[in-house]
Design brief:
By secondary structure, the protein is of the alpha+beta class. It has helices at about 25-40, 50-65, 70-75, 105-110, 145-150, 155-160, 170-175, 185-190, 225-235, and strands at about 5, 15, 40-45, 85-90, 125-135, 140-145, 165-170, 195, 200, 205-210, 215-220, 245, 255, 260-265, 275-285.
């Protein structure tokens, strides 16, 4: 059966026809998924019964090198024993829901800001893959924003003014805006990275704004002016016509392209209900020739 996608968002996001990604090893199907990412930016796969090992294996098979220098790794050791499997949950190693003042919970709350994964690293994240393992009995959506459509909607003068600008991305900045405090050792390990404000997608040629809550400052611009522009661009890019809310179902597996989308977690009563997801993120490095 040929893998197909249907658009479910207003200007992006595709849902895949039935497939078991655990069994996908052939380059033709993997390339079809990559082509779907080029078109939709976000792909939803239903009923994916991944184990942790199977998710890690698929992520590497699909897109190469995994991101393991996460901000969570700076705070505490990963309960799974592998920093490439990011714990997107509200429970600790003992399986209990984290206390309201737990640093891991406080850091995780920052995911409610619009962001793209690993923009504070160089190389940054390319594809993120999130597997729903335990869902609460209430809605806990993830919202996505299409940064290609947001760029396309800018007027020509604004597009010209943004070309060539570079931005420093810092997770210390985005967390401390919300009052989260890092030690000096943690700050030293989270130096941040500089990336272009406008990126051209290498396969499709489409341009996209490359923004995030981690975007701290435009290089060589005065501090207030640069931050105001970044704030205005994020406000523009997250208008309703550029966004889509994914309503999670058990065993959903969602892949998104961090180079051309932002996302944020929507709040729920995380001090009452358990929610456990596993994320793998690949680095924006060249793929082996056989994978193109």
């Amino acid at each position: 059966m040929t893998l197909e996608f249907r658009q479910v968002g207003g200007c992006f996001v595709g849902e895949a026809s039935p497939i078991d990604l655990r069994t996908v090893h052939d380059q033709l199907t993997l390339e079809r998924i990559r082509a779907g990412m080029d078109t939709y930016g976000v792909l939803v796969f239903r009923n994916q019964l991944f184990t942790d090992a199977e998710q890690l294996d698929f992520a590497q098979r699909f897109d190469g090198t995994l991101h393991a220098k996460t901000s969570a790794a700076v705070l505490t050791r990963n309960r799974f024993g592998n920093e490439a499997l990011t714990d997107i949950s509200n429970v600790g190693a003992d399986g209990k829901i984290l206390a309201g003042d737990d640093r891991r919970r406080m850091s995780g709350i920052s995911n409610r800001l619009w962001h793209a994964d690993a923009t504070f690293e160089d190389p940054p994240g390319r594809y993120s893959m999130l597997s729903a393992r335990v869902l609460p009995p209430v809605r806990a959506d993830t919202e996505f924003a299409d940064m290609r459509a947001a760029y396309d909607a800018l007027d020509d003068e604004m597009k010209r003014s943004l070309e060539g600008l570079r931005v420093h991305h810092s997770i210390v900045y985005s967390r401390e805006v919300l009052g989260f405090n890092f030690s000096q050792e943690e700050r030293d390990r989270l130096k941040g990275a500089v990336h272009p404000l406008v990126r051209t997608m290498p396969r499709s040629g489409r341009k996209a704004l490359y923004l995030a809550s981690h975007a701290a400052q435009i290089i060589d611009w005065p501090l207030p002016e640069g931050r105001l522009l970044l704030r205005d661009l994020i406000e523009h890019a997250t208008r309703e016509r550029f966004t889509h809310a994914h309503i999670w179902q058990p065993h959903d597996f969602v892949i998104w392209d961090n180079r051309c989308t932002m996302h944020r977690a929507r709040p729920f009563d995380d001090k009452t209900y358990r929610r456990e997801l596993r994320r793998t993120t690949t680095l924006d490095l060249p793929l082996p020739a056989a994978a193109h």
